[in-house]
Design a protein that fits this description.
mainly alpha, about 70% helix, about 200 residues
Length: about 200
């Protein structure tokens, strides 16, 4: 707290008045980080993504630029959840809400893809059902449209790339995740074409 107080230029007393506990400070940081992170991502995608698939792939291009920034330390939400998630419901909630917002954003990008993706009535993530965390509030066990499934899969690629870049120092993690996203998009195009065929 002393380092933070010095950097903020406020008294320790004032700092504790604003944030009585570490978890309060971390939650406030995560809320602000969420807004900035998602705004930066959306701004990049809007500026660089051409066409529906290009907008999806631009997410991974943005990740590559983020990973190359000095001081990149991975996902603040996963890091905070790992440290405080078991003891602070507020920190855990902020992390979950960020991850759900990412899936929702990707779902919006995926909704722009041409064609109709079929719904799948079977079980498991790979065949049309999303885990409770990825379903973002849908009732348990209900089949979801393939677009929602695709958004969840893309979110897993995003989180995997962030983790690989931070923990392993894998400079090409965003590029590898982008290649996997291209495969998912090609499979979605194929599913859409099959669904449209007479």
């Amino acid at each position: 707290m002393d380092e933070l107080r010095a950097a903020a230029g406020v008294s320790l007393k004032r700092l504790y008045q604003c944030f009585p506990a570490k978890q309060d400070l971390v939650e406030a940081y995560l809320r602000r980080r969420d807004a900035r992170w998602r705004a930066a991502l959306a701004e990049y995608v809007d500026a660089h993504g051409e066409g529906p698939e290009g907008r999806v792939l631009a997410v991974f291009d943005w990740l590559a630029e983020w990973f190359a920034e000095p001081g990149f330390r991975g996902c603040a939400f996963l890091n905070s959840f790992g440290e405080l998630g078991a003891t602070s419901e507020e920190v855990a909630r902020a992390a979950r809400e960020h991850k759900r917002a990412l899936v929702s954003y990707l779902g919006g990008l995926v909704s722009g893809l041409p064609g109709d993706l079929p719904s799948d009535q079977s079980s498991d993530l790979s065949s049309g059902r999303l885990s409770s965390g990825l379903r973002n509030g849908l009732p348990s066990g209900l089949p979801v449209p393939q677009r929602s499934l695709l958004a969840g899969q893309l979110a897993l690629l995003v989180d995997g790339a962030i983790s690989a870049a931070a923990v392993v120092g894998e400079a090409g993690a965003a590029r590898q995740a982008r290649a996997a996203a291209e495969i998912l998009l090609a499979a979605a195009r194929s599913d859409s074409a099959e669904a449209a065929a007479p």
